[in-house]
Amino acid sequence: MILGIPDPLILAAYLLCFLGALWCMVYGIRHWNDTD
């Protein structure tokens, strides 16, 4: 039981959600002023 979450699939969903949001922020910052 990690962080009080008993089901590993629920933990995986939270982790993927967090990583997806982090990736969106990194991508947005890197491509902030692209002009094409």
UniProtKB/TrEMBL annotation:
Keywords carried by this UniProt record: Membrane, Transmembrane, Transmembrane helix
Superkingdom of the organism of origin: Archaea
InterPro entries with a match to the protein in the record: Symport_access (IPR054615)
Transmembrane segments: 9-29
Name recorded for this polypeptide: Uncharacterized protein
